[in-house]
Amino acid sequence: MKKQQVLFNILYPNAYQPYVLQKIDYVFAGVLFFVSLFIYFLTLTPSVTAGDSGELITTVYNMGASHPPGFPLYGIVGKLFTFLRFPDIGYKLNIFSAVSAACAVLFCYLTLVKLLGFNRSVVGFSPVVHIPVVAASLLFAFSKAHWSQAVIAEVYAFNAGLTSAMFFVMTLWYEEIITYRDEENLWLAPRITLLLAFVMGLSITNHQLPVWYIIAWAFMLVPIIYLIISFKGAVFIKQFQERKFPLIMILIVVIMVIFLLVISAIKPDILFPEFGPPGYRLVFPQHVPYILTAILGGPVWLSFYVAQNSLYTASISRSRQDALHAIFWIVLAAVIAGMVFFLGGAHGIITSMPLIIMAVYQLIQKNDLAKETSKNWVDNFLFLLTWALWLFVFALSVYLYFYFRAKAISPLTEPKPLTWGDTQTLDILFNHMLRKQYPVGTDDYSNILGQIWAVIEYHFSQFGMINVLIGIVGIYYFFKNEPIQWTYYIIASLVFFWSIIDFINFEVNPRSLETQEVFFIQQFLIYAFFIAFGYQAILVLLQSLNKVKEE
């Protein structure tokens, strides 16, 4: 056995055979979607409900901003549902929630059948695969919190649908990369990667809860890349070393981005202490260039690197297409950098100059590309990463909906369409996006045990004690069957719980617990995954016992 294969064989001792979706799976997914939607329709709220429902309905109808972070994607998609031929505007938005919740169930099924069907030769219906998947999907569909949000005008059903879709695309992405791990030229699943980047960006424009699952996904990249490198051997490592300079530059850019985000968006009092008391959280106009540089810095630098590669290729091949590619990336990066200059004035120049200097130096230096390797996997990786980051930023640009809508509303005479805040300037828009009007959690963690128990009780109230216990069995069985995917969902759950504690630090009282429950709907989705594996473990055990009896 080759040394490079040791790690892979430890993780997957029974080989790696992803489950291929069949016609029966699309039938089951469609049936689950329509059954869930039918039950949601039967229990749909006829009009406006308490809480944020009235505000959300009003802002969707008026094309305005809701309370922070505004939920722009909810407003845009929800506006389409206002054109349905029903008399009550509230009922139309309730239908939007029902459809979103049913979509969450559909993607729950598709993700689960891929996970539970892994390394199983399944043709047609398989009891140990399809029964647990259907049961767990229905369990999630009619869990207390998810069902409650499926019948009212709220953002959480739509959020569950987007998160469930993101989990499904993540599964496809991972499967494709690992399946083609032995290709001579590293296969990076470009189409799925770009789709995943776009879905990730969109998911944050409805609610910011999915950001923690994206962070957890980034943690998952390290073992995957190491796994792939361990299969490629000396040539792969050699190509990696030939591109030391751009990789070092990426590390510098990442550090710069994190630093700029901290001093401009997370802890703005560090950069400009004169604007408020210690610990103030508001974003002022002077902070905007720093935030823009943090968001756009990575894609801009990578665009210059891709342009350099295209210029080098064009100089050898004399290809007009390669030359046009280089011009495209240079113009794109220059326009974005110029926009930061224009919007930020002196501050824009100060914040962007280090990045531009690095990018221009990268553009004119030739040492790295003078290497003999013409098909370096690092170049392909950085090219794909460039497109992925731009797609992610493009998806985030949905937030500009508030900026342009505020500009359109401003000259209108009173009474103007209702909207939350005047987001005509980027500093106010960032304050709205980043929920700056809300206080953050305190550093007092004396309630941590009560909060942990409250989250456990949430799961009991959704699924019942027996299913929660089956889910514990499923956690072990999941790990036994697919350790990498298991690692992702465990890390995602821990990161999510930590974020809720650190940023909200909710009180343990009936009113607070009732409010916080909807934040955990995505966690209930993940636990439904664990329950499905628990069901599968039980069915496999029963099958084994039957075989023993027959013998």
Automatic annotation (TrEMBL):
Organism: Brevinema andersonii
Coiled coil: none
Protein name (database record): DUF2723 domain-containing protein
Pfam families: TMEM260-like (PF11028)
UniProt cross-references to InterPro entries, sorted A to Z: GT117_domain-containing, TMEM260-like
Keyword annotations: Membrane, Transmembrane, Transmembrane helix
PANTHER family assigned to the protein according to its UniProt record, in alphabetical order: TRANSMEMBRANE PROTEIN 260
Keyword Transmembrane helix: yes
Membrane-spanning intervals of the chain: 26-43, 89-110, 122-143, 155-174, 186-205, 211-235, 247-267, 287-307, 328-361, 381-404, 460-479, 485-504, 524-545
Domain of life: Bacteria
